[in-house]
C-alpha cells in the first residue's frame, strides 16, 4: 500500500511538473506572440514614416524649385539694377563732357571779348577820324546828302543790332561778320574821302554793305535759335538730374530705415546669443553637479560590492559550517549504531541548536542581501534618470549651438548687406557731390555769362554813340535806304514765315518732350512697383528658407527615430531567435532527463521508505533533480524492513546510490548552468530563473519545518539524516546557481 501511495504521489508530482512546464511554454508562446505583434506594429509605423518622409522629400523638392526660380528672378533684377546704374553713370559722363564743352565755350567767349575790345578801340580811332572828315564835309555843300543817307543806314543797323543784343556774345562768326562789316564801312568812308564826287560808287558800296548786314542778321538769327534750343535741352537735362537725385535721396532714406531695422535685429540677435550662452553655462553647471552625483553613486556601488563580497565570505563560512555539521552527523550516526545513549542525544540536541542558530544567521544575511539589492535597484533607477537628464541637456546644448551658428550666419549675411549698402551710399554721396559741383559750376558760368552780357551792352552803348556821330555824316543815304526798306520788308516777311515754321517745329518738339516726360513718369512708377515686388519676393525667400530649415530639423529627428526603431526591431528579432533556441534546447534537456530517468529506474529499484521522508512535500522543480535519490531511498527502506540483519549491505548500497545520484545531479546542473549562462542577456531567461529561485525558497522553508520535526522524532534519525543530506546537497547546488545568476545580473547592470 505504501509503495502504491508513493508511486501515485510520484505520478502526481510528474503531472504537476509537466503542467508547470506546459504553463511555462504557454507563457513563452504568449511572449513570442506579443513580440511578433510589436514587430508588426513597428514595421507598420516605419512604413508610415517612410511615406511621410517621401512626402516631405517631394515638398522639399518643390520648395527648392521655387527657391531656384526666386533666385533667378533676383539675379535678373540685379542685372537690371546694374544696367540702370551703368546708364546713370553714362548719363553723368555725358554731363561731364557737356560741362567741359561749356567751359571751352566760355574760354572762347573770353578770347572773343578781347578781340571785341580791340575792335572797339579801333572804332574809336575811326570815329575820331570821321569827326575830322565831318568838319571838312561841313565846308563842302555837295556832300551833305551822302552824310544823311549814311546816318539813316547807321540808324537802321543800330536798331537791328539792338534786337540781337542778348545773343551777340555767344558765337565767334557773328562777331567776325560784324568786324568785316565795320571794315567795309571804313573802306567806304575812305573811298568817300578819296572820291567825294563819285556817288555811284558810294551807292554800290552801300548796297553791298546792306546785303552783308542782312546776311549777318540771318546768321545771327540761326545762331540764336540754336542757342535757345541748347538752353532748353540743358534745362531738360537739369530737370531730369533733379528728379534722379530726388529718387536717389528717397532710396537713401529707405536704405537708412532698412539699416536701422538690421541694426535692431543685430541687437536682438546679440541679446539672444548672450541669453543662450548664459543658459549653456547653467546647463554645464548642472552637468557638473550630475557628474558629482554619479561619482557619489559609483562610490555607493563600490560599497555595495564590498558588502556583497562580505556576504560571499559569510556564505563560504556557512558552507564550511554545514560541512562540519555533516561530519558531525556522520559521527552521530556511527555512535547511534554503536550505542544509543543519553550523551549522544544531548550532543545531537546541541548540534541541532547550532544548526538552528546557523540557519537564523543565514536568514538574517539573506534579508540584508535583499535590502541591499533593493537599495541598489533604487540607485540604478536614479542613475538612469540622471543619464536621461544628461542626454536631454546635451540635446538642448546641441540645439543651442545650432541656433547660435544660424544666428551667426545671419549676422554675417546682414553685415555683408550692410557693407554693400554702405558702398552704395558712398557712391551715392559721391554722385551727389559731383552733381553739386556741376550745379555750382553752372551757376558760375551763368554769372560769367551775365557779366559778359553787361560788358556787351556797355560796348553796344559805346557803339551807339559812335554810330550816331557817324549817322550825322551819312544823311545822304536816306533815299537809297528807302528802296532797301522795301527789300527788307519782303525779307522780313520771309523771315516771319520762317519764324512761324520754327515756332511750329518748337511746339511739336515740346509735345514730344511732354510725351517723353510722361513715359519717364510711367517708368519711374513701374520701377517703384518693381522695387516693392522685389522686397516681397525677398521676404518670401526668407520665409521659405526658414521652412526648409524647420523641415530639415523634422526630417533629421524622424530619421533618428527610424534608426532607433530599426535597432529595437533588430534586438527584438535577436531576442525572439534566442528564445526559440532556448525553447528547443530546454526541450532537448527535458528529453535527456526523461531518458536518464528511465535508465536509472532500470538500474536501481525504488525503495519505499524514502517516500515517508522529506521529499514527499518538495515542489516539482526539486523533484526533477532528486527523483533518483527518492527511488534509491525507498528501495533501501524496504530492504531494511525485511532484512534487519543486512544493515551494513544496505548502507553500502545507499552510499553507492548516493554517489551516483550526486554525480548525475552535478552533471545535469552543470549542463543547465552552461546552457543558461549564455542566455543571460535575453529578457526572458531572468524571469524564468527568478521563478526557479522562488520555488527553491519554498523548499528551504519546507526543509526548516522538517528539521523541527526530526528534532521531535529521534527514532527515525538514520532515514531522516540521509534524506536531509541529499536535500541539502541539492540545496547547495541550487544556491550556487542563484549566486551565479546574481553575479550575471550585476555584470549586466554594470554594462548598462
From TrEMBL:
InterPro entries in the cross-refs: CCD-Prefoldin_beta-like (IPR052825), DUF4686 (IPR031476)
Basic and acidic residues bias locations: 7-16
Annotated region described as Disordered, given as residue ranges: 1-22, 704-724
Keywords: Coiled coil
Superkingdom in the source lineage: Eukaryota
Family matches, as Pfam families: DUF4686
Coiled coil: 25-112, 210-462, 499-547
Protein name from the UniProt record: Coiled-coil domain containing 30
Gene from which this protein is expressed: CCDC30
Amino acid at each position: 500500500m505504501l509503495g502504491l501511495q508513493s508511486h501515485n504521489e510520484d505520478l502526481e508530482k510528474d503531472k504537476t511538473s509537466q503542467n508547470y512546464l506546459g504553463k511555462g511554454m504557454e507563457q513563452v508562446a504568449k511572449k513570442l506572440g506579443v513580440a511578433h505583434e510589436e514587430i508588426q506594429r513597428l514595421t507598420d509605423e516605419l512604413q508610415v514614416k517612410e511615406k511621410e518622409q517621401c512626402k516631405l522629400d517631394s515638398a522639399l523638392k518643390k520648395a527648392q524649385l521655387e527657391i531656384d526660380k526666386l533666385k533667378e528672378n533676383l539675379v535678373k533684377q540685379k542685372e537690371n539694377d546694374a544696367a540702370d546704374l551703368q546708364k546713370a553713370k553714362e548719363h553723368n559722363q555725358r554731363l561731364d563732357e557737356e560741362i567741359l564743352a561749356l567751359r571751352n565755350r566760355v574760354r572762347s567767349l573770353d578770347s572773343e571779348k578781347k578781340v571785341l575790345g580791340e575792335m572797339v578801340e579801333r572804332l574809336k580811332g575811326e570815329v575820331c577820324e570821321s569827326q575830322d572828315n565831318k568838319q571838312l564835309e561841313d565846308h563842302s555843300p555837295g556832300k551833305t546828302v551822302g552824310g544823311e543817307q549814311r546816318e539813316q543806314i547807321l540808324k537802321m543797323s543800330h536798331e537791328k543790332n539792338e534786337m540781337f543784343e542778348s545773343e551777340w556774345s555767344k558765337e565767334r562768326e557773328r562777331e567776325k561778320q560784324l568786324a568785316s562789316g565795320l571794315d567795309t564801312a571804313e573802306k567806304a568812308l575812305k573811298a568817300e574821302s578819296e572820291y567825294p564826287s563819285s556817288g555811284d560808287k558810294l551807292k554800290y558800296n552801300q548796297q553791298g554793305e546792306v546785303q552783308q548786314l542782312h546776311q549777318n542778321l540771318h546768321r545771327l538769327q540761326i545762331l540764336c535759335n540754336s542757342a535757345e534750343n541748347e538752353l532748353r535741352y540743358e534745362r531738360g537735362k537739369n530737370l531730369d538730374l533733379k528728379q534722379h537725385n530726388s529718387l536717389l535721396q528717397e532710396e537713401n532714406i529707405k536704405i537708412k530705415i532698412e539699416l536701422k531695422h538690421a541694426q535692431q535685429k543685430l541687437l536682438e540677435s546679440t541679446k539672444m546669443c548672450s541669453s543662450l550662452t548664459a543658459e549653456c553655462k547653467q546647463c554645464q553647471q548642472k552637468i557638473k553637479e550630475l557628474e558629482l552625483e554619479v561619482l557619489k553613486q559609483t562610490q555607493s556601488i563600490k560599497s555595495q560590492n564590498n558588502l556583497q563580497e562580505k556576504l560571499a565570505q559569510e556564505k563560504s563560512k556557512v558552507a564550511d559550517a554545514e560541512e562540519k555539521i555533516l561530519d558531525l552527523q556522520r559521527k552521530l550516526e556511527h555512535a547511534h549504531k554503536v550505542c544509543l545513549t543519553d550523551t549522544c542525544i544531548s550532543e545531537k540536541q546541541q548540534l541541532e541548536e547550532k544548526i538552528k542558530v546557523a540557519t537564523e544567521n543565514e536568514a538574517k544575511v539573506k534579508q540584508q542581501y535583499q535590502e541591499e539589492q533593493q537599495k541598489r535597484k533604487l540607485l540604478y533607477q536614479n542613475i538612469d534618470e540622471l543619464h536621461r537628464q544628461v542626454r536631454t541637456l546635451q540635446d538642448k546644448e546641441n540645439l543651442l549651438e545650432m541656433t547660435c551658428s544660424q544666428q551667426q550666419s545671419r549676422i554675417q549675411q546682414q553685415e555683408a548687406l550692410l557693407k554693400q549698402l554702405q558702398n552704395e551710399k558712398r557712391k551715392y554721396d559721391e554722385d551727389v557731390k559731383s552733381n553739386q559741383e556741376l550745379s555750382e559750376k553752372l551757376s558760375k558760368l551763368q554769372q560769367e555769362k551775365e557779366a559778359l552780357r553787361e560788358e556787351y551792352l556797355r560796348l553796344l552803348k559805346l557803339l551807339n554813340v559812335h554810330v550816331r556821330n557817324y549817322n550825322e555824316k551819312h544823311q545822304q543815304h536816306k533815299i537809297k535806304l528807302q528802296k532797301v526798306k522795301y527789300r527788307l520788308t519782303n525779307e522780313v516777311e520771309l523771315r516771319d514765315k520762317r519764324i512761324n515754321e520754327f515756332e511750329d517745329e518748337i511746339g511739336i518738339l515740346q509735345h514730344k518732350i511732354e510725351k517723353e516726360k510722361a513715359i519717364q513718369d510711367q517708368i519711374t512708377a513701374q520701377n517703384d512697383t518693381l522695387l516693392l515686388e522685389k522686397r516681397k519676393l525677398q521676404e518670401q525667400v526668407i520665409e521659405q528658407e526658414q521652412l526648409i530649415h524647420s523641415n530639415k530639423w523634422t526630417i533629421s529627428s524622424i530619421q533618428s527615430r527610424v534608426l532607433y526603431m530599426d535597432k529595437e526591431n533588430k534586438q527584438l528579432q535577436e531576442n525572439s531567435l534566442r528564445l526559440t533556441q532556448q525553447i528547443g534546447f530546454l526541450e532537448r534537456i527535458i528529453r535527456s532527463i526523461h531518458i536518464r530517468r528511465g535508465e536509472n529506474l532500470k538500474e536501481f529499484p525504488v525503495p519505499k521508505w524514502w517516500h515517508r521522508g522529506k521529499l514527499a512535500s518538495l515542489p516539482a522543480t526539486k523533484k526533477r533533480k532528486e527523483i533518483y535519490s527518492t527511488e534509491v531511498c525507498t528501495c533501501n527502506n524496504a530492504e531494511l524492513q525485511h532484512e534487519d540483519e543486512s544493515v551494513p549491505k544496505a548502507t553500502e548500497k545507499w552510499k553507492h546510490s548516493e554517489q551516483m545520484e550526486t554525480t548525475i545531479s552535478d552533471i545535469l546542473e552543470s549542463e543547465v548552468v552552461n546552457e543558461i549562462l549564455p542566455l543571460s542577456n535575453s529578457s526572458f531567461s531572468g524571469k524564468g530563473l527568478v521563478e526557479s529561485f522562488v520555488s527553491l525558497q519554498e523548499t528551504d522553508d519546507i526543509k526548516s519545518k522538517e528539521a523541527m520535526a526530526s528534532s521531535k522524532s529521534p527514532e527515525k534519525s538514520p532515514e531522516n539524516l540521509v534524506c536531509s543530506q541529499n536535500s541539502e546537497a541539492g540545496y547547495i547546488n541550487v544556491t550556487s546557481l542563484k549566486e551565479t545568476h546574481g553575479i550575471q545580473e550585476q555584470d549586466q547592470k554594470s554594462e548598462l
